[in-house]
Amino acid sequence: MTLKGRTAVITGGASGIGAAIARLFAAEGARIVVGDISSAAESVVQSLVDADRPALYLPTDVTSESSVAELMDVAEEKFGRLDVLVANAGVPEEKTPIHELDLVAWQRVIDIDLTGVAISNKYAARKMLAVGGGSIINMASILGHVGQANSTAYSAAKAAVVNFTRSTALTYAQDNLRVNCVSPGYVNTPLIENLPAETRGRIIERMPIGRLLEPEEIADVVLFLASDASSSITGAAINADGGYTAI
Ligand SMILES: NC(=O)c1ccc[n+]([C@@H]2O[C@H](COP(=O)([O-])OP(=O)(O)OC[C@H]3O[C@@H](n4cnc5c(N)ncnc54)[C@H](O)[C@@H]3O)[C@@H](O)[C@H]2O)c1
Fold this sequence. Notes:
By secondary structure, the chain is an alpha/beta fold. The protein has helices at residues 16-27, 41-50, 65-79, 103-130, 153-171, 190-193, 197-206, 215-226; strands at residues 7-11, 31-36, 55-59, 84-87, 134-139, 177-184, 237-240. It contains 8 helices and 7 strands, in the order βαβαβαβαβαβαααβ. Helix 1 runs parallel beside helix 2 (41-50), helix 1 (16-27) crosses helix 8 (215-226) and helix 4 packs parallel to helix 5. The protein is globular. Nicotinamide-adenine-dinucleotide binds next to helix 1, helix 4 and helix 6. This is NAD(P)-dependent dehydrogenase (Short-subunit alcohol dehydrogenase family).
């Protein structure tokens, strides 16, 4: 059990990659706190509690400082300390050419996918510094490394998460507080499942590995970064993308 005795906050743990991370971390002995805007997180947490894993859900909006501060406070109050943050909450965008950009849609994606990560890091780092360190994993994307036509705010936000991660890692490099990010390729989550079959087919064709990734495969990489097995790694962006960015 690589996370035995550790407390982990996972944002966006109600579905997809975040839910897979919550399940894997719990199996590895962590106490789980899921912060999500969707009450679907209740059933994810209930399944952990039913399996005798310490877990709780707090309704959370990562764009709100007071909501995120409360999430970290509750984790500390309930489980005594905070060791791991996975800043995973995110939303996709409506693809549009820049000359037709809708600034309201742009701002929503920036608020959740970028500012939400910064706010989550802010309040988690405070708790971790108080207990002598920790591990933060931010969820980026292949679109933080390569471009894609008609992607605007999502590409901008994810690229910013990659460099935010590097700078934040350097800030805390001597505080035993490691900060890394994971950049998934296309993962089999509701986000992709709900696309038309033709679009799904085109996406799979673009994956060198010839298939979509499973949320559990991303969770494995996040577990590595959360655990002491990655003690030499900070400021890294690990591409879990089936070869997408190798082309
Ligand atoms: N699925 C993919 O192919 C893929 C690829 C690369 C990166 N990612 C990234 O992985 C992360 C998880 O994506 P997923 O595919 O599991 O999506 P998902 O939609 O299954 O999960 C995202 C979760 O974030 C939550 N969320 C949204 N807005 C929130 C807010 N304001 N506050 C708190 N929670 C909020 C949602 O309720 C949801 O539970 C995202 O950051 C996404 O950008 C996904």
